[in-house]
């Protein structure tokens, strides 16, 4: 095993890369375990119009590439692989251990920025038909649904964004929402309403997703939540856009999580309950969940890590063994 790292960052959305940029500029030579599909959920987005500094917008993947390049320019090292296990010290100054399969890394501080992933409906047929008509990312899969009738499930900004994008490819797009009101922002909702081949169906939930003879998705069974009426609707594409879940499995049992699995931090800081372990971005935040707020907390985590390293003497391996 090589010498302990000063900082290991796990995750690579706007939070992870901003933490990398700041710790790299602070000469902490961060090691970023960025995952295979680096860039986080923004890799699956089309235009980002609300990140300050891009008056003409930028695509999600382009923005992540630029953030990654910026962090690398100051010496951040990228490991395009998945962290598979962690062991986090409980005492101040203790070393943390991170594994990437059989390779073990030690670090004085760890910044958790694993982000969030798409929530599933949890209905019959969903898993079996994933990749056979059921998708969680219109931006990634829309081209496969050319000239078809598609459903979008959900009523938030993601659902509107996915529907507007998909409408360029599909014959019709029906947004199915479980309430008559929509969680989406007014501007996104208006854009969807102004798109001629987007329709709305409320208040309906999906009961089941059903295959046809070729084992690909053919129909969806929907239920009206007010009247109880059930109906089957033809659909060869169903896009699920019902929000996200934090990717905190790696640290479950090691850092404190809330009831929904989000990592808990101390007040307005990014400190977790483990000394030298900080958390940022969608892994922590179920309220704002914006690229700009994730980047902001990534910056906070970097500064928290820097101050911790400055103020906390390292515990030697011998001291750590004696304490155990
Ligand atoms: P949201 O949590 O905002 O919306 C989730 C939607 O899915 C809601 O309509 C919710 O209904 C519905 N839903 C949740 N669970 C179920 C279920 N089991 N069955 C049926 N429907 C369900 O998530 P988003 O991913 O849309 O947005 C996340 C954040 O990202 C937001 O802050 C959003 O503003 C932002 N965003 C911004 C974009 C932009 O500005 N370009 C684009 C995409 C996202 P209910 O309302 O009843 O709970």
- What is the string of SSEs from the N terminus onward? EHEEEHEEEEEEHEHEHEEEEEEEHH
Gyration radius from CA atoms, angstroms: 22 Å
Architecture of the largest domain, according to CATH?
3-Layer(bba) Sandwich
Low-confidence stretches: none
- Proportion of helical residues: 10-25%
User: Cofactors and ligands present?
Assistant: NADPH dihydro-nicotinamide-adenine-dinucleotide phosphate
**What is the residue-mean pLDDT, rounded to a whole number?**
94
Q: Could you name the CATH topology of the largest domain? A: FAD/NAD(P)-binding domain
Count, helices: 7
Please indicate the percent range of residues in DSSP E strands (runs of 2 or more).
25-35%
The tally of beta strands, per DSSP, is: 19
Describe this structure as you would to a colleague:
It is a single chain. The chain has helices at residues 14-25, 60-73, 138-141, 157-166, 186-193, 291-311, 317-323, and strands spanning 5-10, 31-33, 47-48, 58-59, 77-79, 85-87, 96-100, 103-112, 116-118, 134-135, 149-153, 172-176, 198-201, 204-211, 217-224, 230-234, 237-240, 244-246, 277-279. With 324 residues, the chain is of the alpha/beta class. It has two domains: 5-117 and 244-323, FAD/NAD(P)-binding domain; 120-240, FAD/NAD(P)-binding domain (3-Layer(bba) Sandwich). The strands form five sheets. Strands 1, 2, 5, 6, 7, 8 and 19 form a seven-stranded mixed beta sheet that branches. A five-stranded parallel beta sheet has the order 10-17-11-12-13, covered by helices on one side. A three-stranded antiparallel beta sheet has the order 14-15-16, with no helix packed on it. β7 (96-100) and β8 form a beta hairpin. The two termini are 21 Å apart. The mean pLDDT is 94. It binds NADPH dihydro-nicotinamide-adenine-dinucleotide phosphate (NDP). NADPH dihydro-nicotinamide-adenine-dinucleotide phosphate is lined by residues 50, 121, 153-159, 161, 177-179, 183, 205, 241-244, 289.
